[in-house]
Amino acid sequence: MFNEFALEHAWLIPLLPVTAFVVIGMLTRSYGKLSAAIAVSMSIVSFLLAVGVALAVVSGNITVEAPFVQRASWFHIGSVNISMGVLIDPLTAMMLMVVTTVSLLVQIYSCGYMEGDAGYGRFFAFLSLFAGSMLGLVIAVNFLQMYVFWELVGLCSYLLIGFYYYRVSAREAAKKAFMTTRVGDFGLLLGILLLQLTFGTLDFQELQAVVPAYVVQCGTGFLTLIAMLLFVGPIGKSGQFPLHVWLPDAMEGPTPVSALIHAATMVVAGVYLVGRAMFLFAEVPLVMNIIAWVGGFTAIFAASIAITQRQIKRILAYSTVSQLGYMMLALGVGSLTSSFFHLMTHAFFKAMLFLSAGAVMHAMADEADIFRMGGLRKKMPVTFAAMTIGVLAIAGIPPFAGFFSKDEILAAAAGVSTPLYVLAVVTAFMTAFYMARLLFVTFMGEPASREAYDHAHEVGWFMRMPLLVLAVLSVFSGLWGHLFGFGEWVRFGAASHEGIDWAIAGSSTVLAVLAMGIAWKVYVAKSWDADEIATRCGILYQLSFHKFYIDEIYAALIKVFVDGIARVLYWLDVYIVDGIVNGLSGIVRLASDWLSPAENGQAQSYAGVYLCGVIILLAYGVYFAAKIMAMLGGAF
Amino acid sequence: MENFPLLTTVLLAPVSAALLLCFVSSKSVQSVRVICAAAMTVALALTVYAFFSYDMSVGGMQFVEDVPWIRDLGVHYALGVDGISLPMLLLTELIGLAAVFSSWGITERPKEFYILLMILIAGVTGTFIARDLFIFLLCYEVVVIPIYIMVIIWGSTKRVSKEYAGMKLTIYLLMGSAFMLVGVVALYLTAFPEGARTFDMQALAAAAAGGCFSEEFQIFAFFLLLLGFGSLLSMFPFHSWSPDGYAGAPTAVSMIHAGVLKKIGGYGLIRLGLLVLPLGAKFWAPLIAALAIINVMYAAYIALAQHDLKYVIGYSSVSHMGYVLLGFAALNVVSVSGAVANMVAHGVMSALFFAMIGYVYERTHMRSVRELRGLAHQMPRVATGFMLAGMASLGLPGLIGFMPEFTIFVGSFGVYPVLAVLAISGIIFTALYTLRVLAKVLFGPRDSRFDYFEDARGVAMMPLIILGIALVGFGIFPQLLMGMVGSGTEQLMPLLERITDAPAFLGGVR
Fold first, then answer.
1. What is the mean pLDDT of residues A324-333?
2. Theoretical Cys-Cys bridge with B18: which of A429, B118, B355, B364, CB 3.0 to 4.6 Å?
3. A81: pLDDT confidence band, cut at 50, 70 and 90?
């Protein structure tokens, strides 16, 4: 009963949080606790409905081939017909579960974390809209609906990254996030428009039906262009190189927001879009290759930056970029299952890592540099345990969640391309190292600052509960997915029935343990001096520490090609275009200045002019008359 | 209700308010304001009624009124609205009412100001409901005079003096109308033989469909109209009046000018240019499309280099008009619908922008992004207004700006692929200058200089509420606007199919 109800009313899942946003925004935003209660209760209902949908999918035999669809017309003009609706298949169900779970937990966590903030109510309004937008994106039936919510997700991230709007850094980070993803959206919008023009529809189901026939008839040339343009959107949204620059800065928002952005909403939207449009991408091998390589490069590139960063959230941010690269890589090699599996496990452990980082910073009076922490394991045992689980999960140590999903990605990559596989393995090694470094430096050893250490304390229950839930999920979600046939449901094409490839799983686990061992040697046992290694690496260290100077390069390019041109054009507009206008009016004025002395008010001069006129007219008349006479004379 | 002269009432509401004001003491400022607000509320209410009771299944001109006026010339007092003019009328009344509330704080000669404002609104209203070209031109000329006086007396001097701004605005408007007038007279004389002449737009369109205008004549006459309507729509290179004019004008004039008056250009291009001179439109369309892209890109770039808020919005409006021109130039039902809808969208958002700038300027006497900062601390509601307008301006879905732009893009992509790509890249630059301005003005550390200024409330909230409802309402339910516009543009379909080889509906499999 409940399952069917949930399925029929799946449109409520995004609508409820949006309602919370409207209610809080219009009525209750000055009452913090009430606003939080509204937001959380709406999220709980959404979550329950999502559970119902998931159960309906499993019990009702809704598969990727036979989804449940509802549509309602949004607007139509001419033959352009755009619907809004609900598309439920296992992909959707899984995403709904992940998004509602994480956003609910983050909201509960925020009840404690945002305590005492002047914008408490506003914060929950934005959080609700954020979750609602992401859920609307997940259930989208067509590309335009997806684009609409895609942009709204962007708006919410803008509002939330810039939540501490009085900080210049937060304001700039928010703007940067919006602008960078906008560049990606430009490509996405072009792709969507081309789809509309080529196929006359944007509906996923209809496109899925016509694309194969189109490929047979017209080849893949044009489709390659469309797919490439579509992929630009995910590059921006999912923080892929070269549009990754906004994601690390996004940590300027309150930490729960970072957890939400990095885990469940926003960044996985890009991965989801590629997965949703897999029927299209899979037709064009060139673009699939590009996706795989962009993902692979992003993974190792971001990992190489994360290795040298000092701020706890920045390390986590680059690890997100890197892990998203993993997911893209998996999509590119055609394994939707492993990509989405990793998306799910990553959502859980990354949310937990961020929430733990938030707890640490909360306890340390907003200190972010891990080298000024240290020794916190005794003061914050729960957070320490959570963080440890998160690190083990992301490093891919069995039996934690990341082990299973990462192994599937490695296996998928190995089956397609050895270079990509090597890239992924090296990334896994680096990931294990920098995550262990984060954990050890923060929690082990001796406190770097005695004062801050004495001040530190374990977080309250509001913040502890979500950590516990996420910890459980981070430990078991991989195993559950593996045991209960995640790939049977969430897949593209036929389900793959591979077990664990022990050669791949074993070797990557050994490497991960090795990496963590090195980290232990350097940062806990201090047998090797970290600074000395850094100096020895010289330029490589500098490049990594300064994020390969990409931000600086972009800033310079914008300065020259955007602001420079803007100034030149403004000059042109004022001095040339408007100059001509003012010049013309100047000529008129000069002419009038020149002529106006004639109007001197003296009757004599007027009479003189009059006389001249008469004489000229007379002379002309006489001349004309003579001419006529001559003509007449000639005629006679 | 059957024979109630609804459109005449809408037209006369501001006129009678203006007349009534002549008999009110200039000391009783409150009654002056209330009379105007009441008149505009009546006009808006009737327009909303008309909007929702317009029968889209029938289409065509509705709420028609027709009284012969100057028989010798064939002039009729003929009013009516269809799916193209009704949204424009709604826009006019929305912004008119908002402008009345935005002018609440005027202390210098409020009575005279409001009289002129009412005449201005009546003039703009008349241009959109006129079915007779003579009435159209008459109303258009009525508009020019109050604007000149209002800018000169109540304007503000920043980069350029208000006298310069007023003069520039007026001369451009008059230049435009001069070209327009020549074109209209040429139409009038060519269409029918003496004795049967008429200014009725539908009759002219029908005559045009009958082939009474040669192609050469259409090309010539359309060029005149393009000069007139194009400069009104701030088409490059006739755009430079727009930023200077808005900067010099008082808030209400900026709102009405950017919001609706400018749109008379686009409306005229469709109503006269396209319907009466289709071959002329076809001939000049590629040029218009090229100029449209210059509008979009060039003005967006220049907006980046601006510091005065009014200049930013001035150039932004030039940029947005590029989309309207592109939609027009693509000459198909989808794109033209997008152009009409975009005029409405831009009208609402720019009016809101100017209302918010006006509110801040009235209190702080600052408009530069170099001086203003962190206003979200002291004025969260004003900041919300700025955010709404800004987000609509950068085409955020869910607000009014997205759907028209999308429609224009869909409609024009197949016709001018390269130009359309350039136009779409405008979404990046629009976002860039909008976000920069919002960031600087609204966010950042609290500045104690602004602590003494209070947030908008009461009457000052009205523009935000009125325009905000339109901004969000049409954004979430685009079909409200699109259905109406579509019922108007569908009548263009046979014509468009005749002049363009491609089917007027795009979106089929090619």
1. 91
2. B118
3. confident
Inter-CA distances, A95 with A32, A34, A90, A137, A147, Å: 29, 28, 8, 10, 17
Token representation of residue A572:
């042109």
As beta bridge partners, residue B78 has B66
Position B479 pLDDT exceeds 80:
yes
What angle in degrees, to the nearest 10, is found between the helix axes of B278-304 and B309-329?
Answer: 150
- Contact B270/B84 with Cβ under 8 angstroms? yes
Count CB neighbours of B145 within 10 A: 15
pLDDT band at B507 (very low <50, low <70, confident <90, very high): very low
**3-state secondary structure (DSSP) of residue A1:** coil
* Pick among A18, A22, A77 to test the B interface (most B CBs inside 10 A): A77
Encode burial over A497-511: b for 16+ CB neighbours within 10 A, e otherwise: eeeebeebbeebbeb
CB of A316 closer than 8 Å to CB of A346: no
Residue found by looking up tokens 């390969």 in the block: A548
Dihedral angle of Cα A614, A620, A621, A623, to the nearest 10 degrees:
140
Determine, for residues B305 and A569 on separate chains, whether the beta-carbon distance falls below 8 Å: yes
Strand blocks (E) in B231-360: none
Q: Please compute the mean of the pLDDT values over residues A421-434 and round it to a whole number.
A: 90
Residue (of A92, A196, A211, A190) closest to A140 by Cα position: A92
Q: First vs last Cα of chain B: how many Å apart? A: 48
Q: For A290-293, which contacts have Cβ atoms below 8 Å and span 24 or more sequence positions?
A: A290/A228, A290/A231, A290/A332, A291/A231, A291/A328, A291/A329, A291/A331, A291/A332, A292/A328, A292/A329, A292/A331, A292/A332, A292/A333, A292/A413, A292/A416, A292/A417, A292/A420, A293/A332, A293/A420
List of long-range contacts for B53-58, beta carbons under 8 Å, 24+ apart: B54/B81, B54/B83, B54/B86, B54/B484, B56/B83, B56/B483, B56/B484, B56/B487
Distances in whole angstroms, Cα of residue A1 to Cα of each of A4, A56, A89, A96 = 5, 10, 19, 20
Q: Is the dihedral of CA B344, B435, B319, A266 positive or negative?
A: negative
Is beta strand B75-81 parallel, antiparallel or unpaired with respect to A68-77?
unpaired
Q: What's the rounded Cα separation, in Å, for the pair B485 and B477?
A: 14
Facing B443 at nearest CB: one of A77, A171, A197: A171
Of A179, A569, A578, the CB nearest to B431: A179
Helix/strand/coil for B196 = coil
Q: How far apart are CA B48 and CA A570, in angstroms?
A: 41
pLDDT band at residue A497 under the 50/70/90 scheme: low
Q: What are the pLDDT digits (tens) for B29-87?
A: 899 999 999 999 999 999 999 999 998 888 888 998 989 888 888 899 999 999 999 99
Contact B509 A174 (CB under 8 A): no
Q: Which amino acid is at A259?
A: A
Encoded amino acid at A11, one letter: W
pLDDT in tens, B205-237: 888 888 888 888 889 889 999 998 998 888 888
Q: How far is B510 from chain A (nearest CA, A)?
A: 6
> With an 8 Å Cβ cutoff, is B193 touching chain A?
no
pTM, two decimals, is: 0.91
Nearest to B389 by CA among B434, B426, B358, B433: B434
Question: For B450-465, how does the pLDDT look when each residue is reduced to its tens digit (9 = 90+)?
Answer: 888 888 888 889 999 9
> What's the gap in Å between the CA of B505 and the closest CA on chain A?
6
Determine the average pLDDT of the residues in A210-235.
89
pLDDT tens for A226-279 read 999 999 999 999 889 888 888 888 888 888 888 888 887 888 999 999 999 999
Q: Residue B11 — very low, low, confident or very high, per pLDDT cuts 50/70/90?
A: very high
Once rounded to an integer, what is the mean pLDDT over residues B257-261?
91
The Cα A285–Cα A277 span in angstroms is 14
